[in-house]
Amino acid sequence: MASVEQRSDQVEPIKRVSLHDQLVGRLRDLIVQGDLAPGSRVPERELCERFNVSRTPLREALKVLASEGLLELLPNRGAMVSRLTLEDVEEMFPVMGALEALAGELAATRISEDALAEVRALHYQMVLHHKRGELAPYFRLNQRIHELILEAADNVVLANLYRGLAGRIRRARYQANMSSERWGQAVAEHEEILAKLEARDGPGLAATLKRHLKNKCETVKDALLAESDN
Amino acid sequence: MASVEQRSDQVEPIKRVSLHDQLVGRLRDLIVQGDLAPGSRVPERELCERFNVSRTPLREALKVLASEGLLELLPNRGAMVSRLTLEDVEEMFPVMGALEALAGELAATRISEDALAEVRALHYQMVLHHKRGELAPYFRLNQRIHELILEAADNVVLANLYRGLAGRIRRARYQANMSSERWGQAVAEHEEILAKLEARDGPGLAATLKRHLKNKCETVKDALLAESDN
DNA sequence: TGTTTGAATTTTGAATGCAAAATAGGTACC
DNA sequence: GGTACCTATTTTGCATTCAAAATTCAAACA
Questions:
Q1: CA-to-C1' span, B24 to D21 (A)
Q2: Which of A181, B12, B60, B220 is least enclosed, having the fewest CB within 10 Å?
Q3: Which residue of B has its CA nearest to A92?
Q4: Helix, strand, or coil here: A19?
Q5: pTM to 2 decimals?
Q6: B39 CB near a chain A CB, below 8 Å?
């Protein structure tokens, strides 16, 4: 029996993902990526057709996403992509700040030399994108760096909560209207983040990240205001 | 039309809670209260009969509770009340600490005199229960105090995340085997919490709460070890 | 005695059906 | 023209149904 397997050590079971799980993932992406506009109603019918599934697994997915805060379920009136209000952002960022500070504190003591080297490389690449004014690649690397810190913290509870909030905020698309002043400040803060991480200064990194998040909060708020104005 | 209502100001719509929502609440209580033992399988059939509903709303509730981490869904094999491992606790407490520290920081600047007075009253009542060795009432008030701080922080995002984690940990029932030494330490920390809150010392309260949570973590870990031993 | 095989039963995953609620559309009335 | 009212349609909440997977359990075999 076992003779069939080449290396009995690393056998991964064939994955059969339930419809429900796939739907949660794909719907979450649609919402976070902004393909479903905040405030828009989401008729079950349409989604069923789009994904070619029946209402049962779809509705299960909607309930889960609602419990994550990405959707609001209006009784008898279906799902709505939840709006990101200024108040939401003002509540979410302090929490993100506390979580990311903790991530930094843990990462500073735990991060491997390999991972640190990767952060360093991504950082300098990111700085380059900043110099060239390439916003999209900059943000990709920025996100990746924060993700690496989160991974280095090696705490899945922390990671899950953080990612949940980050996903909810990401929809704001603050990237588009970040002033060059704020951008410069963000890069300066990232220099500090790298330095503290290399010094393995946990409390210092925590403080820097908290400040970094506070500034990011202002950026997002500006973007949200600009959006509601026009 | 409106003449029927006594005070048109405070009209609350008649609540029609969906089966789904009720089920999520009641099941969560069953799990958190420990009526469903960690590790035990939960056949849908039995729960359907217990609550007298069909499988559809029940399964929706199970998915939500699974996404909260209270249940684990084994593909094609139903739901299991998730076990609380030592590793889980060691991951959850730093996060709880960070969240409660933030709550304290916010509460210190925002708490009303009324709420502060209530905390003070509960605190001294709690100290009395400690003196008398009345564990259960002590814990009730303890929990209520932390809840008041959380409310005073006035941040629903923070409150939701905190309550989610607190619910998951509460199942550990560390109350039963708290040593009198730890209990004394906890009370001392609570004295400090009250003092910092009255001084409206945000950073100080944050630090105290973080330390308080760290100690609580040790208590929970001890309880978990004692449980797995016998 | 202990292990394996295979049908019978149970349980889960997903689709469908049905009644209640909400929405849309159109007519009467002011 | 605008508002109220009533009906037709759509959409939601939940129950039921059906197929596939897992579990049980007894018989066959070593």
A1: 27
A2: B12
A3: B157
A4: helix
A5: 0.90
A6: no
**How far is the C-alpha of A101 from the C-alpha of B192, rounded, in Å?**
24
Contacts of A45 (CB under 8 A, 6+ apart): none
Contact state of A157 with B59 under an 8 Å Cβ cutoff: no
Nearest CA in chain B to A101: B98
Nearest nucleotide (C1') to alpha carbon of A62: D12
**B118 in A contact zone (CB under 8 Å):** no
Q: Which residues of A65-104 are buried (b: 16+ CB within 10 A; e: fewer)?
A: bbbbbbbebeeeeebbbbebeeebbebbbbbbbbbbbbbb
Asked if A95 lies within 8 A of B59 by C-beta distance, the reply is no
CB crowding A179-204: b at 16 or more within 10 Å, else e = eeebbebbbebbebbbebbeeebbeb
* B77 beta carbon to strand D: under 7 Å: yes
Which chain B residues contact residue A20 at CB under 8 A?
63
φ and ψ at residue A73, rounded to 5 degrees: -100, 115
| Residues of A in Cβ contact (< 8 Å) with B101 | 98
pLDDT at A229: 67
pLDDT of residue B134: 94
Q: How many CB atoms lie within 10 A of CB B125?
A: 15
Q: How far apart are CA A168 and CA B88, in angstroms?
A: 25
Confidence band (pLDDT; 50, 70, 90) for A196?
very high
Q: How many Cβ contacts (< 8 angstroms) between chains A and B?
A: 69
Query: Which residues from chain A sit within 8 angstroms of residue B63, using beta carbons?
Result: 20, 60-61, 63-64
Over 80: is that where the pLDDT of A205 sits? yes
Give, in degrees to the nearest 5, the angle at Cα A77 between A71 and A82. Answer: 20
DSSP B177: T
Amino acid at B143: Q
Query: pLDDT tens, A5-48?
Result: 344 444 555 677 889 999 999 999 999 999 998 999 889 999 99
By C-alpha distance, which of A15, A57, A109, A90 is closest to B59? A57
Using an 8 Å CB-CB cutoff, list chain A residues near B158.
91, 94-95
Task: Say how many C-beta atoms besides its own lie within 10 A of residue B129's C-beta.
Answer: 18
Q: How far is B81 from B93, CA to CA, in rounded Å?
A: 20
Instruction: Return per-residue pLDDT of chain B as tens, 230 residues.
Output: 333 334 444 445 556 788 999 999 999 999 999 999 999 988 999 999 999 999 999 999 999 999 999 999 999 999 999 999 999 999 999 999 999 999 999 999 999 999 999 999 999 999 999 999 999 999 999 999 999 999 999 999 999 999 999 999 998 888 888 889 999 999 999 999 999 999 999 999 999 999 999 999 999 999 888 877 66
